[in-house]
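Record pair follows.
FIRST:
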Amino acid sequence: MLNNSYYYQNMNNTKTTQLREVSLEPMACNGCRGCIELNPDIFGWDDLSDRPFLITDKADEEDIRDAMTCCPGDCISLQSEG
């Protein structure tokens, strides 16, 4: 038998995902690596250049905004919709 309370609880906790294009200006980075700690599926670290890089160019808007908020170098941005 289906546990309806489990089903409805999960239905109410779903997150709406809106994928947006993210851009990164690695030369503005101060090396804090906060973006990688927050979103390792979006941001990676290049040990040779000692700079971040994008693993993907599209990601959940909320995840990108979280990374933008924590970035002291302001090197993460959302691309304009259009």
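SECOND:
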Amino acid sequence: MSAKTITKGIISVGTWSATKLVVTGLVLPIYSRLLGIDGYGQYAYYVALLLISSHPANFGMRHTLTKYIAERPNDRVWQERLAGFAASVNAVSAGIVGGALLLSLLTTAGFSLQASMLAMVVVGILWSEQVSLYASGILYGLHREEEATLPASLGVVIGGVIGVGLAATGYGVPGALGGMLFSGALVAAVTLRRARRAIHDAPDTGNDEAIPRRALLHFGMSTTAYAGVAMMLYSIDILLVRHFSGDQQTGLYAAAVQWSEFVWFVPIAIEGVMVQSTAQLWARGQIEEITRLVSRLMRYVAVTTAFLLIFVLVFAEHIVTVYFGPEFRGATLPLQLLVPGAFAFSLARVIRPVIQAHGWVVTLLKVVFAATVVNILLNVAFVPRWGAAGAASATSLSFIGVALVYVRLLQEEGAHAFQGFSWGRFIVLCGGTSAVLVPIALAISEPFVALTVGGIIAFGLYWSGVFRLGLIRFRELEQMVESLPGPIRGIAIRLMRPFQAILVRLDATAVN
């Protein structure tokens, strides 16, 4: 797998991730003000239900298509048969899960016209997403990620604009969800058409081999079970906070979770290409190549995510006040408590698809199931007493446990996720940056000023330290830029040029 292909995929998924991050970042503070704490808590509740329902409805067909098409990217007949089988399975599972979700919502909220319409909107979002996931599974397997991520990026923008418009004109939570439905249906139509065209463009090898339906169903079932349990690990805390502490604490916790997840756009971008990038390496037994690829990407994720999380940890109160408003100041402590777990899970997101590409889906299921049970038990113990802060503590502990086990699983196969990474220098960098920023956060009471001054100082101090300590070398940065597609490479070179002399000087004196 060439570095250029992997880089192209990371940029494509990263563009979608960054777009989603920016739009979400602009939309959520508007929702928090338009809907209030209770309404925002209700919105977060429906989004959590969609997250939990999405993967069972997909029955693992997205990842099944990606894995098996990536293993044989030049066989059109094979791809057509895989796509047809996956479509049938996905349609049946989506119908069952969607029907169950509709009945559950109506039973909970009542069978009034308003409740029925809201339930149908939620189910419509779920079904639209299934079409998009199915199509993206095909496109990802063929390393045509950009054909799925570009429509998805545009859909995020359209959905945000429509959702805000409807919520602002009095439609509240149903309006916010209505924006998601419209954009979801649009993205589904576009990506499905592109996926069909991509398969048609593949060469016809004349292969008449039957697809392994039993193996596909087993992989899909295992992936579904894993993904469903994983979504529970991500979302069950929202449901438990609402049950034990009500909508207000749910709104505060949802605000904290949202900001802790903003830092994941780099891990999500890398996560999106790891199945198709490592499936052939596992099949060929190229463990050393997997170690080189994973350890390098993990180093980049650790360094970039830590920078963002240090800033969030130190300036949490200022961020919450500016972003959500003073009434959400109670989300400060939960946000700070989520930081260790967010860092650990940013690393886990990169490792998980590598393990999945090896075929160890059942192992992943066992790990995440155990973590989910622990998370539920901790939430039950902590939330009634400490509300959102208790849920944040439970989630952080669970995420750290998952990351540690994932690293251990790779080590048992001889693949080392942190080969060559200097943890000592990394800890010194994080500690030193935090020590400089804390007095700034305490001394400046005006949130906008504190965030501006702190951001400038944090950026200069941290990233000069990254290159001075040799955590990332300048030649690596040059290699990444050279791997970018032409137009993007030109932009990156122009942006890097003013800092090139400084970076070269830091690199020359870097600690080896």
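COMMENT: The radius of gyration is 23 Å.
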